[in-house]
């Protein structure tokens, strides 16, 4: 890595901090619209000031996005990297903050290091703004090693309902060889993460309706069907005795695990005994996957987050309830398609229904899973850049257990996607007193500069 770039970043750091503070002082709450228009104007300005060539705000059916380009001297000779982030922030409960959420303040964190306290410091303004600082430093110290396109959306904290629309509609302008995002916290051990994907999700609910009113269980019990039993029986039919999901074809599109996957899994620090004792559980659930991590990162789930029926108050009440309802979330993995899984789920319910109670399957939304192959040529240069910048071995994670909209970039732009979190592990995003360690912001800028430099020769 070019020492001149690192020197430039450090020399400009105070200005970078001032400019970040300006962004953090601007509320931009997508849930309520507060300050969103003003914030997009600030993002546009920052892009221009930091050397992006053409910058525009793109209207969507919801909150706008900002798209900007910074081209290398010979744009056709080098790859293009799409940097994705979001300017919107979570709502705040101002009275729970030690200093006001939109008055960025540097004070000492729990570990004695300086932190920037402000809503959006870690999630996500301080992370994508480090990309702008890196682009400026690379230019000032020489030249931009790759073409950079920046996409900063305004609805991530509201589940990115229009991200797919933006990327599809502007696919030509957003065309790239790689999508890279800095989001989330590093490992509590201090090691950085390099994340290659995320599980998807399908959320459904089954409503069961039996008799038209709650009934005396003695006067009616026996012949009259109970909707709670109907749902229990249906749930029972959805997993076999080994914990495998028994919906026909559920695993058909689950991508196989390679030797390379198992190698990477073996390198992820994971203490099964500590987790069991922390959670107070006697053992792990069964089902496919040779280890808890393999189950968590490579296999889909069918989870019951809620079940309701009848009387659950004090003492007894002898009734056949009129209705029952169950919610089910399924975490999906590459290459499952949520629409296909929903069809299979509905078919299963229909096939196993007793026909004595009315059943209604409602879908509450879905997200497609995405996982960049561990054979992708982008991994080595990014791992090298992150490891050198942090002077600490990154933890390569094939997937998050949770869900992120990275499939949008793979599906509509055909790019691999890599997420590298820059924030401290205790950033308290979404909570009162959200913060970003000042040194994590600085390391973030160096990381982006280093990653872009390494990618010039590797894509
Ligand atoms: Zn967030």
Q: Overview of this structure, please?
A:
The chain is of the alpha+beta class and 459 residues long. The protein has 2 domains: 3-198 and 369-456, Aminopeptidase, CATH 3.40.630; 200-254 and 300-367, Alpha-Beta Plaits (2-Layer Sandwich). Helices cover 33% and strands 20% of the residues. It has 14 helices and 19 strands. The chain has helices at 3-11, 13-24, 36-49, 121-140, 163-169, 171-174, 227-237, 259-266, 272-279, 292-298, 338-352, 379-390, 407-413, 438-456; strands at residues 54-58, 65-70, 80-86, 105-108, 114-117, 147-153, 178-181, 193-195, 197-198, 200-209, 215-216, 303-309, 319-320, 323-332, 358-367, 370-371, 395-397, 417-419, 435-437. Strands 1-2-6-3-7-18 form a 6-stranded mixed β-sheet, with helices on both faces. A 4-stranded antiparallel β-sheet has the order 12-14-10-15, covered by helices on one side. Strands 4-5-19 form a 3-stranded antiparallel β-sheet. α4 (121-140) packs across α14 and α5 packs parallel to α13. It is elongated, with a radius of gyration of 25 Å. The mean pLDDT is 96. Bound molecules: zinc ion. The site of zinc ion (ZN) has 5 residues, from loops.
